[in-house]
Write the structure tokens for this entry.
Amino acid sequence: MDQKSIEKIIRLFEQSSVHDLELEVDDFKIKLSKGHLQAPILMQTQSVPQSTSVEVPSLNQEHLWVKAPLVGTYYNAPNPDAIPYVQIGQKVKEGDVLCLIEAMKVMNEIKAHKSGTITEINATSGKMIEFNQRILCIGD
């Protein structure tokens, strides 16, 4: 099952009144649950590549909101003991890694699409984020 199909299933699930969904196709299994947090939880049983890059920006005049391209767990650093990729007030260059989103055991690098200064961070490391959620704002 490809990533676009998974994202479509997640969007439909989020818009529905269904609280739990379990889908199994061949050796792929996905389980979604809204629970009390209203955030889907993903599980996968097949092996996947170790790393991939995803870059999805959203423009807002002079600020660039970087939005989550998928549902997953947000990480501000490559490991718990490391320094965060970015902090508020920090200058970044186009192509710099801003954060990681883990989805189905794949770490997805989120990169800056423009140079600027981090003006806002709307996510907490280790917490679930939703598809299209505003993560970071890059100002001029």
User: Anything to note?
Assistant: Helices lie at 3-15. The chain has two domains: 1-46, 51-139. Residues 1-46 form one domain. Residues 9 and 100 are 22 Å apart (CA to CA).
